[in-house]
Amino acid sequence: MHNLIFPTDLTDPELDPYVRYNEVQLFHSMEPNPGLFIAESPKVIARALQAGYLPASILMEEKALDRDLADLDHEMAIGPAGGLGQIPIYVVSSELLSQLSGYNLLRGALAAMYRIRRFDLSHFLTTMPTDHPRIAVLESVVNPTNVGAIFRSAAALGIDGVVVTTDSADPFYRRASRVAMGTVFQVPWTYVDAKVWQSEGISLLHQLGYQTAAMALRHNTVSINDPQLDKVDKLAIILGSEGPGLKEKTIAQSDFTIKIPMAAGVDSLNVAAASALAFWELGNRKTE
C-alpha cells in the first residue's frame, strides 16, 4: 500500500520543497546538515532510492497517479532497494500544479530527497579503485545540462569518480540529474572548494599519485589517443567551463594538455561532447 495524501491547496509546509524553495534554498534548507534536492521522474527517483538516498516525500499529479506509481513500482522492483513503504506521496490536481513555476516542463513525479555529506578531496581519492583509476574534474562547468550529460557519459564509459568545483552547477540540480538519467547517483563524486582547487588541487592530485590531463588547445598538446596516456597508472581528466575553458594555472600545472583532433575550420566541441570522446578513449569502459 502507498501512503497517499491529497492536499486541497499548496499552503501545506510539507510542500515547501516543491512550491516555495528554489535550488539554492533546497541546498541550504537543513544547515548545518546537508540539505535537500529534487529528483524528477520515476526512473531518476528510483535510481536515487537504489543508491541509498532517503526521500522526505514524493509529489505526483492526480491524473498521472496510476502511471507514475506503476512506473516507480516497476523501477523499484528491478532494483536492490525496498518498496516505497510509508513515504508520504502528495497527490495534487492539475489545477494546483499549474500554480508551480515550470509546471509545463514537469517530467512526471517529483521527490524531495535528503543529501549526504561529501568526502573532502583527499579522502574521496582514497576511495577510488587501486588499479588504473580514471577520474574527471569539472572546473567551473556552470551549465546543469552539461554537468548532467558529463555524468551520463562518465557512467557509461568507465570513469571511476568525478570531482566538481563549487563554482560549477550542482549535479543534483533537477535539470542536471534529469539529463543524467539518474547516473549522478551511480558515479561516485564529491565537491572541492573552487579556491582550494585553484591553490592546491592539482598538487594534491600529484601527491596521491595522479597525473593530470587538461583538455585545452595549446601548441604542446598531445592527441587524445596518444599511447602514453593509456600507460598512466592514475589519470585525472580536467574539463573547463563552457566559454573560457580551463584556467591558465590549471593548464600550466597539468602533466598533459590533450586535444581532440578536428576537421579543418572547427577548433573545439561543447564540453559535454568533448567529455564523451575523452571518456571513450581514456576511461575504463567494460565491454561484453
Descriptors for this entry?
alpha/beta; 60s Ribosomal Protein L30, Chain: A; Alpha/beta knot; seven-stranded parallel beta sheet; five-stranded mixed beta sheet; 12 helices
Task: Give a short summary of the structure.
The chain is an alpha/beta fold and 288 residues long.
Structure description:
By secondary structure, the protein is α/β, with parallel strands linked by helices. The chain has 2 domains: 3-114, 2-Layer Sandwich (60s Ribosomal Protein L30, Chain: A), CATH 3.30.1330; 121-282, SPOUT methyltransferase, trefoil knot domain (Alpha/beta knot, 3-Layer(aba) Sandwich). Helix content is 33%, strand content 19%. Helix 7 packs parallel to helix 12.
Give the secondary structure arrangement, pairings included.
Elements: E1 3-5, H1 16-19, H2 23-27, E2 36-40, H3 42-50, E3 55-61, H4 65-77, E4 88-92, H5 94-97, E5 110-114, H6 121-126, E6 134-138, H7 144-156, E7 161-165, H8 174-179, E8 189-192, H9 194-207, E9 211-215, E10 222-223, H10 227-230, E11 235-239, H11 248-253, E12 256-259, H12 271-282
Parallel strand pairs: 1-4, 3-4, 6-7, 6-11, 7-8, 9-11, 9-12, 10-12
Antiparallel strand pairs: 2-5, 3-5
Assign a percent range to the helix content: 25-40%
Proper CATH architecture of the largest domain: 3-Layer(aba) Sandwich
CATH class of the largest domain: Alpha Beta
Which radius of gyration do the C-alpha atoms yield? 21 Å
Low-confidence stretches: none
Could you give me the name of the CATH homologous superfamily of the largest domain? SPOUT methyltransferase, trefoil knot domain
In total, the number of domains comes to: 2
Beta-strand content:
15-25%
Give the overall shape.
elongated
Quaternary = single chain
Mean pLDDT across all amino acids:
88
Organism: Limosilactobacillus albertensis
Keywords: Methyltransferase, Transferase
GO molecular function: RNA binding; RNA methyltransferase activity
Protein name: RNA methyltransferase
